Structures are given as structure tokens and as C-alpha cells.
Amino acid sequence: MGNGTQIGRVRGLGSAKEGAHHWIAQRLTAIGNLLLMLWFIGSLLVMPDLSYASVSQWLSSPLAAVPMILLLVSTCWHLRLGLQVFIEDYVHEASGKLPLLILLNFYAIGAAALGTFAVLKLAFTGAAA
Amino acid sequence: MAGADRPLSPHLQIWKWGPAMAASIAHRATGTILALVGIPVLVWWLLAAAAGAESYGTFRTWVIDAGEAGGLAVLTTILFKLAAIVVAWSFFQHMLSGLRHLVLDMGAGYELKANRTVALLTFVGSIILTLLLVAFVAMRGLGS
Predict the structure, then answer these.
(1) B65: phi then psi, degrees, rounded to nearest 5
(2) Count of domains in chain A?
(3) Which of A35, A45, A70, B139 lies 20 to 30 Å from B110, alpha-carbon distance?
(4) In a domain, A88, yes or no
(5) pLDDT tens track of chain B, all 144 residues?
(6) What distance in Å separates the CA atoms of residue B101 and residue B107, rounded to the nearest whole number?
(7) In sequence order, which residues have a C-beta less than 8 Å from that of residue B36 and are 6 or more positions away?
(8) Kind and range of the H or E element at A82?
(9) Domain carrying residue A120
(10) How far apart, in whole angstroms, are the C-alpha atoms of residue A128 and residue A29?
(11) Please, which residues 36-65 of chain B have a Cβ atom closer than 8 Å to chain A?
(12) CATH no. for residue A33?
């Protein structure tokens, strides 16, 4: 702990003990989410329908598969950061906080990995005719 | 002046609600809804599409349109439609209050009147955008 300046005495006393990198990453992924979600909603709205043929054909094209993978990474990264703050603010006991943070990491990374695998499978094996 | 029962910070229960406070907690609540409802359904949809026509059909039956399946699927598709509206509103609310936060992060928009107006506009905007989306989806028949 700092032994002189005022900033030195308060640094690291927040509930997360650190923050600048977390803060920047939250905003970077927010901008990513904004662009990618607008692309995703727009793409869904101009699809002829949501049948298997339309959806699988759309997702097997590189210009849909890549943004979709980026969307999964950006949103899951963002939700990992956001829910981390949620847990840090509302769960006060270390015995509950640590397991929840571990679970959150598994959830966010697991969701992004599952979704990414699904998109890659469609993209590489091609949509059923 | 200094009354004995003036509130001390932070006492969530006895703070007077205002647009800025509502926008702030709504940002957190809608983010949680998107993370815990929106993302699982998105991943389920992608996995169903990747697993082939039959799996995608199962997803459609339970989530989008029960079709001839009837029974429980009729109930779940209604629930998923309601959930879709909640998730759509959550997205627009989170998007608009998120944009508000990006402006506030730059140190702008703290004038009392402007701050209050923008906070209120996030709610007005999210409701309008949700209604437009629902109307468009219904018009295009994408929900069946």
C-alpha cells in the first residue's frame, strides 16, 4: 500500500483490486457488440425465412460465419466482464464469490467455444443442399 | 438544516428514484438478461443448425413454431416469443444506455437537465425500437 500520496493509499481498494484493463476491454467489446449486433439483426431481418435451408446456407458463407464468430467472442467476453462486476458488487463472501467467478468463466468461454464450433462446422462442411 | 433522519449513502431503499438511477440499474439488469437468456438461445440455435436439418427442426418446433407437434410445444413457443420480446427490449435498452455510458465516460452529459433527458430517452428509444422490430418480424412472418 502506498505510504505517501493520496492516490497510493486508495489504489487497489476497490472490490476487484484492479480495473483499468477491465474497464478498457469492457468498452472495446461494447463497440464490437454494437457493430456486430446491428449486422446480426439486419441480416436476420432480410433473410427470406428462418428455415434450415436459409439459415445453414447463410452461415456457411465466410461473410456471415466470420462476423458471427466475432459476435460470439465479443459478446461472451463482454458478458464475462459485466457479470464479473455484478458478482463482485453483490456477492460479498469470498466463499461464494470465487466459485461464481470460476463458473462465470466456464460459462462465457464455453458458450463462445460451442457457438464458434457450430459456425465452423457449418462453414467447413457446407450446408446441406 | 441538518435533520437527524437525512439518508446516508449508500442506502438503495431510501434513495429517490430518478431517470439516471433507473437507466443505470436497467443497464445492469438487461445485461444480465442478455447474458443468461439471449446467449444460450443464440448458441442453441447455432448448434441446432450445425447438427443438421432434423435438429434444426426440433429447435423450430420448441422455440419458433410448434407446427403440427402441438401439446407442450405450443406452450414453449409462446413462452419463447415472450422471452424474445423481453430479450429484444433488453438489447435495445442495453445498447442505448450503453451508448449513454460511452458519452458519460468522455465526461460529457452531466448537466442535470441533459442527463435526465438522455436517461429518459434510453427508455423511450428502447420501447420504440422493440415495437418496430416486433412489427417488422410479424410483417415478414419471421416468427413462424
Answers:
(1) -150, 115
(2) 1
(3) A35
(4) yes
(5) 455 666 555 556 667 789 999 999 999 999 999 999 999 999 999 999 999 999 999 999 999 988 888 889 999 999 999 999 999 999 999 999 999 999 999 999 999 999 999 999 999 999 999 999 999 999 988 877
(6) 10
(7) none
(8) helix A62-90
(9) 18-125
(10) 33
(11) 39-40, 42-43, 46-47, 49-53, 56-57, 60, 64
(12) 1.20.1300.10
- Pull the grid cell for residue B62: 420448441
What single-letter amino acid sits at B71?
A: G
Closest CA to B127 of B96, B82, B103: B96
Nearest to A38 by CA among B95, B82, B128: B95
Using CB atoms within 10 Å of the CB of residue B51, give its burial: 0 to 12 exposed, 13 to 18 middle, 19+ buried: middle
Farthest CA pair distance, chain B? 72
Domains in chain B, ordered, with CATH?
19-140 (1.20.1300.10)
Grid coordinates representing B43? Answer: 448458441
All 3 cell numbers of residue A81?
Answer: 466482464
Model ipTM value: 0.88
- Which residue shows C-alpha cell 439518508? B7
Determine, yes or no, domain membership for A10. Answer: no
Asked, for residue A12, whether it belongs to a domain, the answer is no
Closest partner CB to A59 (pick from B49, B51, B98) = B49
